[in-house]
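User: Show me an example of a complex going from sequences to structure tokens.

Assistant: Sure. Here are the input components:
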Amino acid sequence: MTLLLRWLVLAACLALAPRADAQGRGASNRQVVVSAAVSLTEVLQQLAPAYQAKTGDRLVLNLGASNTLARQISFGAGADLFISADEAQMNAVAAYIDPATRVDLLANQLAIAVPDDRPRTMMSARDLLDPAIRRIAIGDPAAVPAGVYARQYLQTIGIWSDVASKLVPAGSVRLALMAVESGAADAGIVYHTDVATAAHAREALLIPSTNGPRIVYPAAVVRAGKNPEGGRRLLAFLGSPDAIAVFTRAGFIAPVPVRN
Amino acid sequence: MTAEIRDIAIFTTVAALAATAVMLVPGVAIAWLLARRRFPGKAIVETVVSLPLVMPPVATGLMLLWLFSRRGPLGALFDRIGIEIVFTPAAVVIAMSVMGLPLLIRTARAGFEQVTRRYEQIAETLGAGPWRVFSTVTLPLATRNILAGAMLGFSRALGEFGATIVVAGSIPGRTRTLAVGIYSFTETGQDRQAAILLVISVSIAFVAVLASNRMAREA
């Protein structure tokens, strides 16, 4: 019941949020629209007041699976900044962004989440082969970044084809997490940072970046945006030490530059 | 057309047919009760059975997920006897039935209300019991409406999206329907597959509307 209530409250908030925004702000403030990977939901909400206080810009969050956001951008949607959860989706909108602004903002790690009424710890992802795990929720491996990373990892450790029949592809990493929380899936492969936001899921295994896929969040200013300056300001703010501190507290990792 | 696309089309049609079969008996029974009986709480029943028509389908899906997930009241019962509902083809049929049922009930109820009470009373005076009156007088006279309602429910089931994606997901080869497939393929950049499913959807809808219009004209 509490779970249902949470969803209803969430749905109510989502429904009411834009109206509250429109009434509460004068027209003089510029808004900055950021299309961001849904795994960044809580940290961006946490950072929004500081950013708004600092710049006077009003932050509008458009959160979703990065592939969904990339499709919106390629159909001409006007975001000022795009933060993707993988490079593939940022590359997919290469023609729509300002390449000079592109940076790797953050890094993350995968984790296996389980429902909190059946908590367990796993020694390795091979434990997913356990018959007691009947359904495994992941992002749609065809494009949702978390699902693509999950597939890469399962392929690397050689159990992809063994668990394929158990997989439940979800439209975003948070929908995969929701499937775990409701108990509909017995396990889910999500980001380490997602599990901490879940009221009804526990982390069974952390897949550290040292032996998991390399997970980076590229960010770039979108050219079709109405407020590219705001996009740049926001990007600079998100890379500032203060913002990075918030990100790392939430479990994200400051990205290590790749050596070529 | 690939095997995957063909299987999605077949699965969707079979699931919608199954959903129509599932909704038929309770749908007709509720329609008859609403048309012919007075009972306490009738207004509530009337309202509840119409809710899926006006609620956002996603909300209906969330309620079904809550009911049927292992941690929900019905799901816990099924779990105890080893039956899974969520993310199975059964969940697709349940979502389709719930969304189609109001259309069947409304249309069938109108049919029952059009049946002249006198015919039923005459049958009663000739000694027919309530079941015999229903099965030999009321039901045959309301058949056309019931069929039209079933057709509407079937069409609604074919296109069901919001509740299905929440409670059944979009599992390739298992729960992916036409509507859910169009969405998943579009979201993941597989535009060609989405376009083929779109053409199939339009074709099925075209035939269904044509058939139901013809049925209405003959009525």
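The lines above are the inputs; the final block is the predicted structure for all two components together. The mean pLDDT of chain B is 93.
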